[in-house]
Amino acid sequence: MILKALVTGKNRKVANDICEHLENDRGYMTIKCAPSKTALFDVTLAELPRIVIICLGDETQDTVQAYNVLKNVSATGGVTTIVIANEDDEKLFIKYTELKRVLFLSRPVSLFVLYEKLTNIEEELKNNMENGISVFREYINENACDGRTRKKILVVDDDTEQLIHIKEQLEEFYDVTPVKSGDAAFKYLLKHKPDLILLDYLMPEQDGPMVLRGLRAIESYADIPVIFLTGMTEKNTVIQTLTQLKPQGYLVKPARKSEIVAKIIDVLG
Fold first, then answer.
1. What pairing do the DSSP bridges indicate for beta strands 80-85 and 103-106?
2. Average pLDDT, the chain
């Protein structure tokens, strides 16, 4: 079975060696990624890897915390996160990580141990496929309410740093899904209906007004509240657009957490 593996980390030598072995020995599709928050966010969003391998080396608190952007993919049952580290880096990683589930592998790396684990992952996925079991079989009962139902927010912005910033601000209170384009937003809407959309005003290909017009033209999406995200330079243009397209308001970037939450509460109650 050909698996897709994302390989990242400050230890480039180990990362390059791992990629070479996975490609040549296992036939895996490997994606190398810089260990920065924005790069990791973009790549995991686009590639959806089955395996994430983090090769630690000379880490600091800041570099370890950059990997926390992987916490959503790490928490997914179908994704295995492996951290290759020496004793000092492992302790530092444990101290500052927010990832819920990782497997540590010591350096120097034993390929036998790594391949044994990867074989187990392959066999589990193969068995699931043969038994007709999808790895991702999520069911969300929209009618169930236990008093703790979280509102779903879709954030559409082509700026990765903005997506990360807003997601980190809101995920304490809401289920936040980030996408980077209007096309990605409409693909998401085919399967999910958010309670509110935070929509960037200026984007390539389809800008915010174009996306909003598309939403209003489709009956099942027309009632979704939309708040524009805009820079200060477009503020006057956005105000004019408010009278034409009638979104539920706008926020000037970069907005503070209190401002975003207050605006969402104002719209959703």
1. parallel
2. 85
